[in-house]
Design brief:
heterodimer, A: 194 residues, mainly alpha, Butyryl-CoA Dehydrogenase, subunit A, domain 3, 10 helices, B: 156 residues, 2 domains, 6 helices, 83% helix, 0% strand
Chain lengths: 194, 156
Amino acid sequence: MELETQSLARGLRRRDPELLDHLIGQYQFRLFRYLLYLSGRREVAEELFQETWIRVLERGYQYDGKTKFEAWLFAIARHLVIDMLRRRKSPADSPASLDDLLDPGKGKRVFEPPNPESAALIDLLAAEEESEHVRSALACLPAAYREVLMLRFQEDMQLEEIAAVTGAPLSTVKSRLYRGLADLRQQLEKDHGL
Amino acid sequence: MDYNSHERAERLIAQARVEGITPEERVWLDRHTEECARCAGLTDATERALRSLRSVTVRVDPELVKRTQLLVRFRANQLEGERTEMLPVWVCCALSWILGLATAKPVWRGFEWLGQHAGVPNLVWQASFAGWLLLPTIVAAAVLALRRPESGRARL
């Protein structure tokens, strides 16, 4: 793995366009899903998808090849989401982190619940019924929980890697996972009787 | 079965998925869920929730991917162009610094001589000498500052 990431790091330092083309194709689904889970809006996720790859191009020299590329990629994407949400909020209530931004107890939730009348939102997920149920349940969770659940159970990341991406202590990552998992289970049972 | 064993089972069900449990804990949990319908239900519900979570699919617009690849290539060309454009500035800076360092001793003496003949305090001619040495950096900084508003991110 290290050999692979080292050669990736060299390519990023060179700003190799072929390599970047390949990476964009390879990580399109995973990065977009992560951005969508965090931001909760397709148009925002699309904008940030482009921004993330531009940032990868510009800051590629910072990737040392010692960690997994996706962890570095998601960390960049996460910073961009936070920056974007900060810009959209008024300076008076400028939050310090994703948790402050997305804590459901502190204001409007960013992740929009699905609206069956909206074609764009329906397009967010494949037409599978179960996806809709999960999405609906996820919409009720704080973004900080959605994020760790997605990184752990969809990306299959180790807890340490999640801590590196989110910049949170390991204990915080664990408690978010436990609470997120319990909340998700309850939501799915409550809303859809799964 | 007491309340504590249900609580322990509940904790282990989640822990098994989040960070893993020991083989001994696995044996205990399996035995407990065989006997306890409530905890068995909880195990099933957790499994179903995770299966559902993993089944979520997100569609990515192929046009978005193509646009992004184009945008990145465009920006890479921009950055390469900027680097090429700045090369002469850096070469000039480097040469000025080399020349400045190589001639530092006679120039220092020259400033000293001029300062003494003009009757200015030592600090003045010494500061002038420092300004002379820093001149390439100041020029390079000015060039960079003038260039900055022109360089912008590409958008598609």
